[in-house]
Amino acid sequence: MRLSEAAALALATRLLEEHGATRDHAALQARVLVTAEMKGHPSHGLCRLPRLVERMERGLIDPQTKGTQRWRADAVLEVEGSAGLGPIVAMAAIERLAPHIPDLGIGLVAVRNANHLGMLAHYVEAIAAMGLVGIALSSSEALVHPFGGTQAMLGTNPIAIGVPTAEDPLVLDLATSIVPMGRIHHHAATGRPIPDGWALDAAGKPTTDPKRAKAGAIAPFGDAKGYGLGIAIELLVAALAGSALATEVHGTLDSQSPCNKGDVFILIEPSLAPGLPTRLSAYLAAVRASPSKVAGEPVLVPGDRARQRRAAASRNGFEINQSLWEDLNALSPSRILVSEGQRS
Q1: pLDDT (mean) for 306-320
Q2: What is the pLDDT of residue 332?
Q3: Which of 268, 154, 152 is CA-nearest to residue 200?
Q4: CA distance 288 to 298
Q5: How confident is the model at residue 341 (pLDDT cuts 50, 70, 90)?
Q6: Are 89 and 114 in contact (CB under 8 A)?
Q7: By three-state DSSP, how is residue 265 classified?
Q8: Could you give the CA distance from residue 133 to residue 266 in angstroms, rounded to a whole number?
Q9: Which stretch of 96-105, 160-169, 321-330 has the lowest confidence by average pLDDT?
Q10: Which residues pair with 264 in a beta bridge?
């Protein structure tokens, strides 16, 4: 079935409110999920809602807290997430730090014990909208095998970078695994096999069965390069946030455990060189205009495809699985989240 952006936001916001979130917190968490859907990443979208609701019902998420913030140094804001919703805790800290960046030049937020953030692009886009360069890092359960290994020892450990320009910011958002675990869960939920090379099963053998992959390990992207970047982020996040390392992390993919991963956000004031934003935009335009390997398929820069998908979804809505729709409605005490007329 197809949903409009407005209908999806109404659905997610109301469901979160019905399970204890304040209106503002529900709206922000809903926005993060719906934007992922609109950008073509349903693994980070509405399919996350049932688990969020279950975690809220079990007391594993406090939907009202923003966490506890403490200045560890002039440019370092330390946050105890206190089981809060990831987007709420993260954005509260970013918004507290951002006004100090013109004086500091650079600042860092280190968060531990908050819940899943969703797509990191949301945060670096928000930072770039403030006129700042943003870098976001996060950790997860052990889901990725080392290069040359077969056992899950690292998190998927995504990184995102946002750089403001005179036009749209450059936005890079990627996991250091070949795919996020959410993609494999999405394949399992929709009954589709995964491509060769994505994962190993519990016995360390290659598999295309997403259910076997969930019990095994995902490959790092780019073999040794993704592994190297992933393990560097693993240690960097733990060192800065004081959070657990991958083999001791839990709570982003289950409904039984408190979430104890870490998140780091770096905010940087860009150079005040005259005309810099325009020069950055002109460079990106030149990259897009450079010769393409395939006729009719122009060169893109990071963030372009997501913006194109989001624009199309704003016009035409986006598809969600009928069974997911039914599951979400079943979670609502009112049983009617979005009327038929609100669907796209």
Answers
A1: 96
A2: 80
A3: 152
A4: 7
A5: very low
A6: yes
A7: strand
A8: 8
A9: 321-330
A10: 110, 137
Interatomic CA distance for residues 72 and 11, integer angstroms: 39
Measured between alpha carbons, how far is 55 from 38 in angstroms, rounded to an integer?
A: 25
From CA 260, how far away is CA 138, in angstroms rounded?
11
Amino acid at 7: A
End-to-end distance of the chain based on CA atoms, in angstroms?
9
Confidence of residue 325 (pLDDT cuts 50, 70, 90): confident
DSSP bridge partners of 108: 76, 266
Query: Rounded CA gap, 107 and 79, in Å?
Result: 14
Q: Which residues are bridge partners to 106 per DSSP? A: 268
Span 107-136, average pLDDT: 98
Residue 36 exposed, middle or buried by CB count within 10 Å (0-12, 13-18, 19+): buried
Residue 82 above 60 pLDDT? yes
User: Dihedral of CA 254/256/260/266: which sign?
Assistant: positive
The reported pTM is 0.94
**CA dist., res. 344 & res. 335, Å (int):** 19
Reply yes or no on whether the pLDDT at 140 is more than 90: yes
Angle between helices 322-331 and 5-18 (to 10 degrees): 30
